[in-house]
Amino acid sequence: MLRIRSLSNEQLGRLDSFVPESDPNVVAQECRIALALLFWYLPFIGIIRRSTEIRNSFEAFGPFLRLAGDVLEPDTSPNERKIELVLSSEWDYSPFMYDRVQNLEDFLFIGLPASESGNPLLLPLAGHELGHAVWHREDLRKALQAEVQAAIIDSIGKNWAEYQEKFAIKIPREQLSTDIFAVASWRLGVEWCLDQAEETFCDFIGLAIFGECYFHAFGYILAPGLGRRSVRYPETLARVQHLVDASTQLGSQAPNDFISLFEKDPIAALSPADGFLLKMADLALETIIPRLVTAAKTAVGRASISRSAGEVLVIRGRFDLLAPAENCSSIANILNAGWDAFNDPGLWSGYQNTAGRKAEVLKELILKNLEIYEIEQIQAQ
Amino acid sequence: MIIKSDRLSDMLAEGQRENTKDPLIIVPTPNLDALRSEGTASIDLRLGTWFAHLKQTQMAYLPLLPSTGSATVGPDLTSTTYIPFGSSYILHPQSFVLAVTLEWISLPNDLAAYVIGKSSWGRAGLIIATAAGVHPGYKGCLTLELTNVGEIPIQIRPGVRICQLFIHKLEAAKTGAISASSFSGSRRPMLRPLTLDAFAAKLSSAYDERNKMHEQP
After folding, report:
1. A364–B140: do the CB atoms touch at under 8 Å?
2. What is the pLDDT of residues A54-70, one digit of tens each?
3. pTM to 2 decimal places
């Protein structure tokens, strides 16, 4: 906020410096800059403002900031990390993440759904949003561009007759990557595939960081699907299948029948040509999945995030006693124990006074456990 | 019988072991070695991060009782504040705020406790708790009722030692049923409406009916 205020004051100073004799064109230009500044930063002021609402899970902030530092600045000691985090709860388009905002480059703005703001069980979704920051920092879009382009051209080549019919471009097949009109016809497919790759990669990052509980949070918020097919996201069933397929490599196991929670997205309302391009983007995505899994595994591997089934059991044992656990080594273990308790219909059956309050009390307990974890981290520094 | 700190230290250490049934748990666990050597009769507890105070309203009184109209005690009447570690809360003279202990307490069925202020705060005018009893089987952070009865503002900060817990052994305690009031499971302070028991409800209704008769023309 101080930085935004400083920028605004700077601009205000320029406006104040004008005198009646000032060139009206210059004045108008400075006014346009001031309006652009307002237009650009107002949403971020809103996010910062909403991040201070008491509906937020404040206890999650410290642990998540540490986690973000571990993932994004693994080689920097915790005290020297530059990353700043705004963890907010939002009504629109959430969960979301803004990264590399002009003049706020070291800030990550993560918005989680406002309707679930007090629910720590959905924190694994913030792992997906963190994935976007990894994607940007490692410039994976650029790194994958050539591979995706080759895959799109290859897919079009395999569906040549359909391509010619949809685009009415009559060129030899070998000119697909050189003819200016042909290139213009499939370029959008490359962009869509790269967007889908980013979302898939972020899923893998969330899964690699949090393990099984990522599946639960993902299913909780997304099942049975988005209700529409977006060209920028993989088809929901394919997306879920990729997650399940990657789980073993990323060190976790998908819940039984996880895929059955989801439905196929409705067909996107696109022109025949765009429909074809989307099909090509989907096919191209399949070819780069192994690379995305490896990239996610490498990125999270550098962060050395502890995930231990044994520790999850110990934390779960504490939850059974209606008490938070101590000496936890990661928030992933706490959240996995939390989801395990949430999914247990027999939880606290021995206690008489928990009826109707189990979910509420469990959330309190998990948030307290996150606070305890943070206290221990501060004490250990 | 009040349990001495060295015994409490043993009980807390026992509670940290896996598979202990119905243990005494205080998290974050106090320094057990210090507790063992102190030889005191209580455990110090720290101030938590959540505070709740009553908002200034146009209501004539606080509608705690069920028969006092449609307004009920809830989030609308209180303002909740989160004070992160390193920040302070200023409690002004004559003001009242609900706070919580940093520690999450889990009392077994055979222990009860009293939460009492610390003299160092008391001498500065800070009264810590007025509803001091903690029932057996209680789980959650303890709600503290903080009042500054002095004449100058008092600065308090999450993490500081704010009160002390005297733990008692219950005689002839049975495992099993725990009274409904013993359970909290909450990390934040909350104002809760009162419920009338059958005895008070009967008295209230008799009084209400007599009033209605007098009101009839």
Report:
1. yes
2. 889 999 999 999 999 99
3. 0.90
